[in-house]
Design brief:
alpha+beta; Aminopeptidase; 2 domains; 8-stranded mixed beta sheet; 32% strand; binds coenzyme A
Length: 314
């Protein structure tokens, strides 16, 4: 399957007119139906050439996603934290473009804003489900200002860094805190010696695939995925296996895990490969996996095996 590349770049001022055409078209089709005339007018008081040109001189930055030199998506960010104007051409929606635009500004904000606590957005009624799917959380009820309806939301920005031995102890203790209860329920008392040896073995095996999750200068978890060869009914194919995935209790339920998974699933969908994982039967993480599209396909005494299928006929 052909994998289409979308280049994301900071907007060149010469492209501002082209990007505004995209905004007008997508806004009128997807957002305007939720607004009254006052709301539509307020929107274009902001989203017009003169105002944006001025804002670009102040605290606004725009990034555009291009395909074959055509602008197919855009995102604007202000004060290195607040997302505004996220638009994707109708023909290019549901290909992960908006998700990648958000990732790009997130990295940009982390790099340039040392005090960054949250990425924020005022979601349009249309985009609410999209942002929730990515792990954004509402911070207030829907509001209406000058005819524009929006729901304020936020997300904790995180990044991946390479595994290093110096993180071993912290990651081990975090793993213990996350899984001790399930392990003890099934196998008896947690034995640090056995568990450290087991953890060490897993790390050695998957070292190059481990991503350590970092948030506001803190190590908050790990995420690992790698490709495996599968042979089933005389067919051979590749699957993406997720393993060693956990987040510090303090940061659980903040949307980070969901965001990591949704990003992974978009990548795997583009590559046309299924995504596989297993979860302790009593672990409520199963519900998150179900929410993002995994289904149980097998159960063992202790685990559910789950898969997000893109190859539908197997
Ligand atoms: C919202 C918008 C930016 C999303 O762009 P996109 O490039 O299609 O989004 P992605 O492909 O990155 O979506 C990632 C995941 O989010 C979810 N998602 C995307 N659009 C969704 C929608 N309209 N409703 C529910 N879920 C949605 C899907 O689960 C999707 O993954 P999947 O297609 O594999 O299931 C686009 O629909 C748009 O331009 N809408 C109109 C303008 C708008 O409302 N902008 C927001 C202003 S705050």
């Amino acid at each position: 399957m052909e994998i289409i590349e979308y280049k994301i770049e900071k907007l060149n001022i010469d492209d501002l007119k082209e990007v505004l055409e995209l905004v007008r078209e997508v806004f009128m089709e997807f957002e305007a139906p939720d607004y009254n005339i006052e709301g539509v007018n307020s929107f274009f008081k902001f989203a017009n050439y003169e105002t944006l040109l001025k804002k670009l001189d102040e605290d606004l930055e725009i990034f555009a996603s291009k395909h074959d030199n055509k602008i197919v998506g855009m995102i604007a960010v202000s004060e290195y934290k607040h997302i505004t104007l996220l638009f994707v051409d109708k023909e290019y929606q549901r290909k992960g473009i908006a998700t990648k635009l958000i990732n790009r500004v997130k990295e940009h904000c982390i790099k340039n804003n040392k005090n960054l606590e949250y990425m924020t957005v005022n979601s349009s009624p249309y985009a609410k489900n999209f942002y929730h799917k990515l792990g954004f959380k509402d911070t207030d009820l829907e509001r209406e200002v000058d005819g524009i309806k929006f729901t304020p939301m936020k997300m904790i920005p995180y990044t991946f860094i390479q595994y290093n031995e110096k993180y071993f102890d912290k990651l081990y203790l975090m793993k213990k805190e996350c899984f001790k209860w399930y392990v003890e329920k099934i196998y008896g008392p947690w034995d640090d010696n056995v568990q450290i040896e087991f953890f060490n073995k897993l790390i050695e095996e998957h070292k190059s695939d481990i991503k350590v999750i970092k948030c506001r200068d803190e190590i908050i978890g790990m995420y690992t995925n790698y490709l495996i060869d599968v042979e089933k009914d005389e067919r051979k194919y590749i699957e993406d296996e997720i393993n060693l995935f956990y987040i510090d209790k303090k940061y659980q339920n903040s949307g980070i895990g969901k965001n990591i998974l949704v990003n992974q699933l978009i990548e795997d969908k583009i590559k046309n490969i299924n995504t596989d994982l297993q979860v302790f039967k009593e672990n409520p993480a199963r519900f998150l996996y179900e929410k993002v599209g995994f289904e149980i396909y097998e159960e063992t005494k202790t685990h559910y095996k789950m898969k997000r299928k893109v190859i539908k006929n197997e």
